[in-house]
Amino acid sequence: MVDDLKKGLEGVLVAESELSSIDGDEGRLIYRGYTIEDLARGASYEEVLYLLWHGHLPAEDELESFTAALNEEREVSDDVLATMERLADADERPMAALRTAVSMFSASEPESDAEPDDLEASLRKGRRITAKIPTALAAFERYRLGEEPIDPDPDLGLAANFLYMLTGERPDDVAAETFDQALILHADHGLNASTFTSMVIGSTMADIYSAVTGGVSALSGPLHGGANQDVMEVLMEIDESNKDPLEWVEEATDEGRRIPGFGHRVYNVKDPRAKILQERSKELAAEGDSKWYDITTTIEEYLTEEKGLVAKGIAPNVDFYSGSVYYQLGIPIDMYTPIFAMSRAGGWIAHVLEYQEDNRLIRPRARYTGPESQEFVPLEER
Ligand code: CMC
Fold it and tell me: Which residue ranges run through the membrane (predicted)?
């Protein structure tokens, strides 16, 4: 038995996976052998889901039936809608609303009696969850605005339909493609904290609803999915401070503040997803307001050149440019992390089912550092 303590499980191999691989020194990410650049430029989010869940990129007829099956599952129950309304009225945070929604989806699951090891049934359940998340999230946002939810449009893909249900406007091609790309970029990323959480839950042979609910919970933290919202909040803080962005970032780093969107447990160089989102952010800025893009690049240049952070392996991660992209698409800031969850649900489901195929309960140990022996004192004598 190896007794080395690996805090944060850093570098510990716990499973084999064919789903995604990260080269943190080269800044390379692949899903089943396809580079993230090729998938982002050439595929749709639905194709990527199919790739992750079924092992190959779909042929046209496969994609057509897969998309139709997903689209059929988009509606959520009246109970879920009523809960989204209540939570919106109570000013609940969107990630908490999403956590509740995913957990509630199981109440209308037609195959709830399927055996835990029926992986085909679990995949269909996963498809239902993935199709319903955008609908529940958009409904929550509509209720917050005091508006009624908008029914899904079966003619729109998952990305475009979400923007439509969120805003009531059918997005133009640039917005739909940009958002679809963002979903592709976030779909999977090895055994990150939320994926591992889902796998731990899945390894007990609990159902996929529990595993995805756990994934949402883990993603909500600022060290993981919450960073994209933090990035945009920092950009707005800089804008509102009326300071030069350079002056702001100098002061912030002198105070020892961590800059959200910088640093990654696995990448020692700039995250390839950040490069793609930077291009999109730049394109959107060229059409509209370049302010956010400009502040972001100023911070990156300062941290890279003056602070030498990139040379130390602390480089922009996926969240650094996603904030300004989503902002320019008109998405409310506190919906950024739920959007991450909307996409990553595909990866969670893929990993849970892959792991369950040859399941072993995940059960690590802690090194005990408490007292070895204490004399028990009854309550009334303490
Ligand atoms: N700004 C300034 N310094 C930083 C930053 C940052 N964002 N991130 C790490 N450092 C420094 C840190 O202070 C430490 O310096 P020192 O060795 O002098 O104490 C060194 O880099 C190593 O930091 P660490 O926390 O030990 O590294 P980690 O691998 O445990 O943490 C991280 C990775 C993502 C938690 C961390 O980089 C961070 O807090 N980043 C900001 C939050 C963020 O952007 N999170 C999103 C991660 S990517 C999306 C995802 O996977 O969900």
Answer: none
